[in-house]
Design a protein that fits this description.
The chain contains 18 helices and no strands. The protein is mainly alpha-helical.
């Protein structure tokens, strides 16, 4: 049942308040931007192109007016023009942002009854934003995502897979009672959306249809691009290792974000809210987060290699020390530190993919 009373607040002020409390726009844009940059670094590297290197060497805002036309002519790793590069970064980030926003909107509907009962201070139950308004926003997001996918040559099969997974999430994978009793299973199933999203976002850069060649028929993809000899099994093996490891890394990063934001001190626990500290206790919740961070580190190490092991280990150690500090002093302030370090580690994990471009590609020489 929708709320009966509506808070009387100006249009812009109420939406600003909503985003501030429930979906901070700047934070999510930066989060998605890190995902997009990590995806771009990985898929440029695996496609054997040095056009990204030329983008950074000749960085400027010129040519952006021709970006759309040039990209549409040949969307298969054809973004060496700085203007096109900037445009595609923006478009890909927007599409990823829209997906996260739609997830938040659906969660508002799913949690409405519980929010009214246990968390009446939130924007929707207190009447700041109505469910009807959120439906309208959802429709706008959906239409915008479809149009951008079509216009910029991304893959509709990847988008369809993303939406199938999204639909299953909204239905609790049709085993909601089981998931309510097994929070780890719910975590795993929910965060499977991230690798699918990475595939979808990468299709903006690789081109409609060609993303599946890169994933499942890499020889055909390389033949299309004409980049290098396709008979080299070592190249193909390395490409697959990097791509699969990156998809797994995106899954672990998404798990870190979910777990870190649901670690709380005892005085901040709320009735009806299944945080990981409430369900498992503080030591086990911290152990879970630490294991996820170590798994992410392992994926980074596999992708980047031993040459950069020292900065990877130092950042991981910083996060693990923060985790241990919370066990020793489980205060609200320390729980916020846990969330902050978790987000920093996620950003670092994605942005560290740029280290793949040390000397551009170790196998590809012009």
């Amino acid at each position: 049942m929708e709320q009966e009373k509506q808070e009387k607040v100006g249009f812009f002020k109420k939406w600003y308040t909503y985003q501030k409390e429930r979906f901070p726009v700047i934070v999510f844009l930066l989060y998605v931007l890190c995902i997009v940059l990590g995806t771009v670094f990985v898929f440029y590297f695996c496609s054997g192109t040095d056009s990204l290197k030329r983008v950074f060497e000749n960085f400027s805002l010129t040519g952006i007016n021709k970006a759309v036309l040039e990209f549409r002519e040949n969307p298969v790793i054809n973004v060496s023009n700085p203007g096109i590069f900037i445009l595609m970064i923006a478009i890909t980030t927007i599409c990823g942002f829209l997906q996260f926003l739609m997830v938040r909107i659906v969660d508002e509907f799913k949690d409405y009854e519980d929010d009214c009962k246990y968390r009446p201070y939130r924007p929707v139950p207190r009447g700041l934003i109505s469910l009807r308004e959120l439906k309208g926003l959802f429709a706008i997001c959906f239409i915008a995502q479809v149009l951008l996918t079509f216009f910029f040559g991304a893959d509709f099969i990847a988008l369809a897979l993303l939406w199938v997974d999204f639909f299953l999430m909204t239905k609790g994978f049709f085993i909601k009672k089981v998931l309510d009793k097994h929070q780890l299973l719910e975590l795993v199933l929910d965060e499977l959306m991230m690798p699918i999203m990475v595939i979808y976002l990468s299709s903006f850069w690789v081109g409609r249809g060609h993303i599946w060649e890169l994933l499942f028929d890499i020889k055909k993809f390389f033949d299309y691009g004409g980049k290098f000899d396709c008979d080299c099994s070592l190249i193909i093996s390395r490409v697959y290792t990097i791509i699969i490891s990156f998809l797994i890394l995106s899954f672990f990063c998404s798990c870190i974000a979910e777990v870190a934001r649901k670690i709380r001190s005892k005085d901040k626990e709320e009735k009806g809210v299944n945080t990981y500290t409430a369900v498992f206790g503080i030591p086990k919740a911290i152990l879970l987060l630490s294991v996820l961070e170590i798994c992410t580190f392992t994926c980074q190490f596999v992708i980047i290699g031993k040459e950069y092991y020292l900065p990877l280990i130092l950042v991981l150690a910083f996060c693990l020390i923060s985790n241990m500090l919370f066990i020793n002093k489980p205060t609200h302030k320390m729980s916020k530190l846990i969330e902050a370090t978790g987000n920093i580690y996620i950003a670092f994990s994605y942005l560290s993919m740029f280290l793949l471009f040390n000397g551009i590609s170790f196998w590809y020489k012009r």
